[in-house]
Amino acid sequence: MEAGRKALNAIGEIKGAIAPFDICSAASKPETNYPWIGPTTNHPYCPSLKKTIEKESMVPDNVKYIPEIVINGLDLDIVKKAMKAGIEAVRDIEGVVKVSAGNYGGQLGDHKIYLSKLFK
């Protein structure tokens, strides 16, 4: 949770970028059979479901929380700056195991932003 808050604060410092949903406590998925409730949980990435779904879980053994932050920006460069700022804000926080990003097969936008390229 600390890492999510620090990332959110860093993203908020980037002019032209917003995190419209604050922090989501489990990854969402763009498709749903229940559109009236909004996005449903991307269950393979939900730590609280790990024991229930066992082999389908993608949550590493030592992970208990996965904050999801959606970033919108005025243009692609601003989104990249916001992503980089969020990652830099959490790099040294104890307990952070990994930072990743999803594009959901292009369902959430036309661009794929490779995190490693943000730091070149």
Please give a structural write-up.
With 120 residues, the protein is α+β, with helices and mostly antiparallel strands. The protein has one domain (2-119): Alpha-Beta Plaits (2-Layer Sandwich), CATH 3.30.70.520. The chain has helices spanning 2-12, 50-53, 76-90, and strands at 17-18, 28-29, 40-41, 72-73. The mean pLDDT is 86.
Helix content: 25-40%
Number of helices: 3
- Rounded to the nearest angstrom, the radius of gyration is 15 Å
> Quick one: biggest sheet?
2 strands, antiparallel
Strand content: 5-15%
**Overall body shape:** globular
* Structural domain count: 1
CATH class: Alpha Beta
Strands of the widest sheet, in order across it, are 1-4
Poorly predicted parts: none
How far from one another are the termini?
Answer: 28 Å
Key features?
4 strands, two-stranded antiparallel ribbon, 120 residues, single chain, Alpha-Beta Plaits, alpha+beta
List the helices and strands and how they pair.
Elements: H1 2-12, E1 17-18, E2 28-29, E3 40-41, H2 50-53, E4 72-73, H3 76-90
Antiparallel strand pairs: 1-4, 2-3
Helix pairs in contact: 1-3
